[in-house]
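Hi R.,

Here's the chain you asked about this morning:
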Amino acid sequence: MIALLFKCTPVSEIHICRKNYLDGSVPPGFQRTALIGYKGRLPLKEKEIEITWVYLEEDAGRKSDKTAGKDIFFRLDRLGVPLVEIVTAPECYTPQEIVEAAKQLGMLLKSCGLVRRGLGAIRQDINVSIKDGARVELKGVQLLDMIPVAADMEIRRQIALLEIRDELKKRGFRDGEVKDAPIDVTKLLKKTKVKFINKALKTGQKAYMLILPKFKGLVGKEVQPNRRFGTELSDKVKAFTSLRGLIHSDEDLKKYGFSKDEIATLTSKLPNPDIDAFVLVVGPAKECLKALRFVTERANYAIIGVPEETRHVKDDGTSVFLRELHGRSRLYPDTDSLPLVIEESLINKLKENLPPYPWEIMEYLAEKYQLKPLVTEQLTFSGRHQLFEELVKMGIDKKLAANTLTQTFAALENEKIDVQSLTPQEILEIFKYFKDGRFSKEAIPEVLAGKVKHRELQIPELLEKLGLKTIDTSELDALIERILEEKDDFIKQKGMDAFKPLMGVVMKEVRGKIDGKVVSQRLKDKLQNYIASAS
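And the predicted structure, written out as tokens:
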């Protein structure tokens, strides 16, 4: 149904395939995936972009915060959860177009009622490339506002890497000029004042240096804010070894505690100190040599330009290396699963029952209920437009229904109250008791929050627990008269200006028990009579 909503051509047979994942995130070592539809369309404001593929696949585990050093822990709570993966063609030419496409995708998916909603339920991976650059996949972009930031940061990174490439060409760098020939400098640094190196060497670990010909000044070149080409090399080391990073010669080595003699001795090992650079790693010998093989490979690729890779986006929009970019060639048939034949009759049946498009829903809500564009968008994007209509049919004022499902829900969510967990049936039941006069509209947020916390209670029990027993007008009148007597001096001083402060005092005692409009009118009448009788 989702593939058909995107106007894709559905496949006649669904074949389950496998993708290898050997990092531990999927215990069997592979992830199952299946192509459902292809070559669809997604309308944007001024054009359409192609939906290349719609896949169904299973989610993987995720790294735990416990991960440290050599030990990697995975949380398996979402393992096997079905995912719909939607791939667009590279037809968005600005960061803002990417935002628009992501918004349209999210709105269509959330409004159709076929997928889970909430933060993290829809995850965007952005592929960015520039002229002469390469396709880089950015993962972990949760918020729409972060998409242009992350895209701009990646554009900046690719431009910087191309500048490094061009400068290496000017310097006559040849592909493969960085040799995997580490130099053991353990003895040289045996008495160093650099604390972490001194401590590591005393435990039998090693220090190795790798020469980077013609890289002087380029290892320290900034590719993103507070990230340099040296950081790119360090990311590789962190990703594939237990080492925490590396040191390079474009840094201020004195800040680490290296002496002038140590710096001079390390520099003397460079064939051409005027244009050459070096990196330094410290740790178990096997890990150091492994790390420098990855540094060699990445440094040599600098003459080509931008490597294709998958990167994780940080909170500030910058990104770190995650893994090499995988291609479709890693897919192979899952021999445990038979192909699933999709009958034409099923496709025809689904086409007859497709949910409306969100832009059609918004137009319908605006025309029928005269709602503002922002409200129609919020109702549609949240998937609560059908619930809104049911509330209105029940006899609830359209403005109250819309405000509750948008503003009130948003306010409660900001207070970490999971109103998203309430079912439409529970919300309708709450409003049924409201319509019957069991509590006032001021108490709606309190009742919604109470239902989230006490799912086991029926509404009458919940109202009793919350102390929301209704009062009639005679009880209200008695309460108002008592408060007017207590505030006699204040009323003599302020006259009718005492109304607002007195309203606050009365509402403090009756909030949620009787409608605020009723309270306001009764108080105003009684206050006017009280002032008149006193004069």
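Residues 146-170 form the longest helix (25 residues).

Let me know if you need anything else.
M.
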